[in-house]
Amino acid sequence: MxxxxxxxxxxxxxxxxxxxxxQIFLGPAWINGYAEHLRDLGPLLWVIRAFLLVxxxxxxxxxxxxxxxxxxxxxxxxxxxxxxxxxxxxxxxxMSGLIVLAFIIFHLLQFSFRTTDPRFAILPADPLGHxxxxxxxxxxxSSPLVSGFYILALFLLALHLSHGSSSFxxxxxxxxxxxxxxxxxxxxxxxxxxxxxxxxxxxxxxxGWVTLRTHS
Length: 216
Ligand code: HEM
Fold this sequence. Notes:
Layout: H1 2-21, H2 28-40, H3 43-72, H4 88-91, H5 93-112, H6 118-121, H7 133-141, H8 144-171, H9 179-206
Helix pairs in contact: 1-3, 1-8, 1-9, 5-8, 8-9
Bound molecules: protoporphyrin IX containing FE (HEM).
Protoporphyrin IX containing FE is lined by residues 14, 17, 21, 35, 49, 104, 107-108, 111-112, 133, 137, 150, 157, 198, 201-202.
């Protein structure tokens, strides 16, 4: 139950964060203004950040505990393991989850604490006096290595969500012969839409569709 509820909160976050980030396609004024609005929340922003942090820690702690309990329930492993129903995604939730965690730590160092690139700390403000998140993102994703790592991590996030975004219904007891396969299909479509949406940003920068520019 705790894994399911904390997971749903994280799903809501990734939807909101994607909608915010896609504003890069509308130009610097949009994305920089949006980031400024978030910062204007002041103490409320810190409450939201603390809540998300507790949520992520609880999600990881309880999933890892569940995985350990599952393993302990069968101390001698199967001599032959024929997977009948479990998908690749469902069998690798801990692996995909931990790599996504490593990505989030890098991502926060890069775009929130701005310690990975010395240029980010000294970016001049945009004409409206806002921190220039647009330029920071374009500079960051101009590196094929950084963009490649993002796309790999986003792929694993999608794999993780392609199972997690529907399995939480089952964890909460909403299990039904007709509904469950449809929810599973919906969860997979949702996860891969998120992948396309998020990846479109580094891809657009690498292809030169989103470039550094004088602000509009
Ligand atoms: C292409 C993909 C992504 C882009 C371009 C992006 C962009 C950003 C930017 C620019 C910030 C800093 C906002 C600011 O300080 O003004 C940020 C913060 C953050 N991002 Fe992302 N992000 C991406 C993917 C993700 C994903 C997949 C996750 C989670 C799984 C995530 C989680 C976070 C978190 C937790 C923060 C910190 C928010 C805060 O400082 O309060 N991001 N992101």
